[in-house]
Amino acid sequence: MTRVLNLALCLLYTKRIMKLHQRRFETIYSGITTKEVFMNGFKKAVLTATAVFVLGLAANAQAFLIDDFSTDQRAFPNEVVANSTTPSASDTIGGVGTIANTDLLNPDRTISANYTAGTGHLAVSVESGMYTHAQNPGTNAWSSVEWSNFGSADLSDAGSSIALEVVVNFSDLGGELDIILTDGAANTLSLLNYAIPAVGSPTTFLLGFGGFAGTGIISDIENIYIEIDGRNTTALDVQIDLVNTAVPEPTSLLLFGSGLVGLGYLARRKHQKA
Predict the structure, then answer these.
(1) Shared domain check, 119 and 32
(2) Into how many domains does the chain fold?
(3) pTM (2 decimals)?
């Protein structure tokens, strides 16, 4: 709704600027039909209106925060390590907690440690602002974080968000992410086997909504699930720092606005020559 109002105001502003330049032309250049004077006025009007519109979009474009992991949580109360002594196949522990710093409406966050085979250790927790999956050598395991019970969320933010943003602080060997978004009708949007390379410093991964498969509706999401898959490796350490949506950068919007100005100018010149 805000973007529609911005566009309407820009159109009204353009019309008013054009009228003012027309009056100025008639007053100062009475009886003179100078094409350059009018073209200067036209270009200024279009440039000003486009700048107002683009800056309005940039001001309203904000990421939708899912979790910054500022609320600590372990996979099970008072327990970090799953199967630390004698692991058994298909052993799972988990814990549910609520988080505060999010744009979701009072969501539950569930983290799970899933140990399938091996003799090593698996530690899963949310501490010090990070979601940590620590899988020692000789372990076949995976972990997950899930947000639920927040009603419905429009992850596209009325069309301004274009991707899911995941910031990985550290990944020693690289792994895979599985992401599943479920809407109110239980339809899903999924991005499976997304490869995370080895990184030693905070790295942002943008997962475009257009790359998700399925029939889920991005504007009606009721469940968000992310899985770190370590079943195809013997050891894996991954730390996720942030999960939110991503919006186009203001510089991209300004380039878009500049393109509109150029198109408008070329169209006007073509019309004048005709």
Answers:
(1) no
(2) 2
(3) 0.69
